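Section handout 9: paired folding examples.
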Amino acid sequence: MSGAGRALNRTKDRTRRLTARLRRHAGPDRVVRRRPCWGGIAVAVLCYCLSLTPSLLPRAWWLQGLVAGVSAAVGYAVGTLGETVVRLLLRWAGFRIRPRLRRTLWAALGGLGAAAVVTVTAWSVRWEDEVRRVVTLPPHLVWWQWALVPAVAALVAKLLLLAARTVRLGTRVVAHAFDTLVPRPVACATGVALAVFVIVGVVQGFLLRGALDAIESAASLADQGTTEGVHQPGLPSLSGSPQSAAHWDTLGAKGRDFVGTATTRAGIAAFTGKPAVDPVRVYVGLRSAATLDERAALAVRELERTGGFSRRILAVMGTTGTGWINDQGSKPLEYMWGGDTAEVAMQYSYLPSWVSALTEDEAAATGRALFDAVYAKWRTLPAGSRPRLLVYGESLGSFSMESALGGSLSRLTAETGGALFVGPTYDNPLWRTVTARRQPGSPEWRPVVADGAHVRFAQVPADYGIPDTPWGEPRAVYLQNGSDPVVWWSPALALHRPDWLDRPRARDVSPAMRWYPLLTSWQVACDLAGADSVPDGFGHRYGTMPTSAWAEITRPPGWTGADTARLAALLESVREPGLLD
């Protein structure tokens, strides 16, 4: 026999010995190829059907398949655990399920389960159409795509089940390997602990860390780029100009967008028909200074250099994760006040908001550092010549600005001249406080706080008049859509039915939506993927609503409702930031 043949035989012998050893350690029961569990299949079918019920926003067929597959896999785990407990109780009671009854149960589950999957999948098309109509999308779906939902769900569920059983096999191998060395309970505990250690290590150290590193690398490269058509400004009233200490190449991509697309004096004058001045826009990027305090100090020096503290309006603006400032929130002030404005912002990350949300401390610390530095300088000015100090933030930017005020309504009313928060997150400290203190009878999606004395919530302009009581100064407005998953998802949604599902509901929440433990939290979390893919006024899209909100908050002299409508029409084409920005 040749050397290659002998080597091949040795490899075969080693493989057989290793297989026998694994079988000995794994024990007699099949783990990966074991028969399915009746209780697991039953609960999996139930969870699959419930996952197709309406949520906040419409879903693509592939996303619905993913949602249903994960839901079914979780249901299988719950059902298997429940059946195990029932079996133990029946065994303890001396009751044994006869083979004939077992066959009958399986036949009933097969027939009823298949009928339920087909019926609910077909009916879910009507539910999906209803959700699409609520957000003013055409209520038509491609039937063959929706017919693929069960197939996608089955594939996802099987992959998750295979992964779980592989982990269980590994746990059993370790436990049997230690069984001859230590008592069996200790061996089992060792196997479980080792499996948990490996899973956590792989997920955090390899999968999660690797994914975050890849995202961070891509985001860092994007942050160094410049949007096509955006050029370094020449006006001294803008950061990044030749006169600025915040150099153009340190502002980051979104910072360069902010100062490079600033509203011009000519554009403002053309709209208002009155003389205007060039607005001040100050932006400090992560690379503009070494530390947080140095960046905040640089922002104040930039405001001093540009004359920002001598303008009528001074707005401190929180950014989204990438450092974005939505033009829908910044431009209206400049038009309303003839350019006699200064807006200042500071970057805390270049990662997308959905990643930056994992490190909220950076947003909070940056918001506090910027506001405190600006406020400290603002307080030294003569009371009669100070600009009106405003705060603004959208999404994670609203969290940053609320954190800057310590989540305190009293600080907001004492230290600012008004505030606009758009699409707040569940973790916003002030939003949580005022929502929890809403007056009885007012819905969570449009709460009334202290008779609307300072704070009001709106989805459409008519909401500013609710309640019909005097609205004092300073004014704060929250813009939040009833169908915005950024606002309504929270960890508590897993175990507690939310008040925003009470009646009356917001106009853009389907009447057919129901709350289910764990499942609804998963559904709304998946709605985040489509939060930016719906028309303005729904999901996480607020369109030109900041224009009307700023008009209500600042009440520019001589400004009319017709002016607000004209400005909204002018800004209608401005693109809003998405969750991936």
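Moving on to protein 2 of 2.
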Amino acid sequence: MKRRIHITVALLVTVHFIYASGNDTAIRDSVRLEEVIVTGSRPAVSLNNLPMSVSVVESGQIENRRNPSILPVITEEVPGLFVTSRGIMGYGVSTGAAGGMTIRGVGGSPTAQLLILIDGHPQYMGLMGHPLADSYQSLMTERVEVVRGPASVLYGSNAMGGVVNIITKKQKQDGIQTGIRTLYGSYRTFNGEVNNAVRSGKFSSFVSLGYSRSDGHRKDMDFEQYSGYTKIGYDLSSYWNVFADLNLTNFKASNPGMVSAPLIDNDADITRGVTSFSLENNYENISGGLKFFYNFGSHKINDGYSPEASPLNKRFRSDDRMLGVSLYQTYRLFEGNQTTAGVDFQHFGGHAWNTYIDNSPNTDPVKKSLNEVAGYLNFQQSLLEKLTFNGGIRIDHHSVTGTEWVPQIGLSYFAADHTVLKGIVSKGFRNPTIREMYMFPPMNNPDLKPERLMNYELSASQGLLNRALTFDLSLYYIKGENSIQTVMMDGKPFNINTGEIENYGVEFASRYHINPHLRLSANYSWLHMERKVVASPGHKFYADISYSQSKWDVSTGIQYIRDLYTSVAPAAEMKETYTLWNIRAAYRPVNLLELYVRGENLLAQKYEINSGYPMPRATVFGGVNLKF
């Protein structure tokens, strides 16, 4: 009780301090003309009018990293977010995989408590209920919006810890643009990408193809990936447009096992696909959309064997699917109002089985499908030109676990010139997955209930020097129950709703555009967990300086991680502290040609993120970028 009182006092003192530092002359028009986002409120809305904490990673930041995967970029740029890794390229799947994502200590591996979206469409496996990290490539990404905290009112299950929305590229101006990028470096790592963007009147298209491979920094850690993305759009009129897209990824990943427990032939061959169709309207007082999406995958996994054991006779196979429909419409009912009503439907499931190399009959078949339908209402109202009220409610019905009510309420207050104060109370939830309820006996438990948490948050944003310098500060408290954990019962593992969450912390981010050539940025997050979880650092800091002049771009970044738990077992608790230093440089001898280099972990730090999987020391990459 005392700890909660201390947290509340700290929140109030912080808000009072920031408010007092401003003045009463609010230039509201300039404040409201800040960044417009879509993730926290289905239609586009000013970030300042949303009560939750949202981070935006822009296209320039993504291109500056020159990394095939989008996840390392957001790990650095977003406070409170962390993504696990095990090697130089490729996150893999199954035992020993990385790519587990957490926000404020909520998420985990597999990442079922945090929702990944592509253009607002949920991305997770129909059977397993979690995303696959190797599916999210920078070549298709225009920007990323990250909601740090529950977003279940709009997005339902899995959004209990937060949302990562990957917004794909599209050509905005008439013309044709083509890009080619190649990369080669340590451990025979290669990446090649080709993309083409077209805009002609009302028609637009974007197509990209990519290939990546690496030997990895350990034996039997090779990775190979093919990826492709295409998006076609057409403006039916000034108010209506349509889009259709298709994203396909196939990767093969090998897992050498922990250093202390090596594995042979632990291989995976994974194919993932996403396709969608959107019909959108945008009038002066009404906007909305009708969206269809279909996710599918095929997975072939060999769990491998230890050197002293015999090869396994069985191989795991699964196919899954997820079909969804989303309809929403926003109405501006009166001055300062924005009301959004929507319905979502999802049908997901698949088939999993074991096949045998000696031609024995297939065993352990799981063939299951479930439905989820929801309706929601989100209300935003500006009052007295300084205050914006947000309230929302969602009614979500799952075909097994039943009905869940999800409320949310928040305020945004324009306290002074370029000063915005915010507060929000929101609920997050996650329905149990098919894997947890019906697969892998004796762990499976069809009587599992949804996980739930409540999030209490205060935040403040301040702009100085005509917003060339910005500060963002967030303080939060999270209390959750019914977390699904695997416990031993009668000597056997069993899934049960027994876990609790109690986290609180502070997040800070700042950017300073000193001049058109020089930019500084930094972010920091502190997380306290009453019940420790793996892959959620207690302290996470990143600072970056970028300089651009004529033909040169140079940037360098430092990431400091402290108290990162790699194991929380009572008898084997382990945590890591490390510092990573990266450098990137690019030179353009002519407008269409760019030569670049990238160095990572240049301090040659020895560390682990996944227990038993040492990360590579210093690595260097170079490449060519063509644009015409």
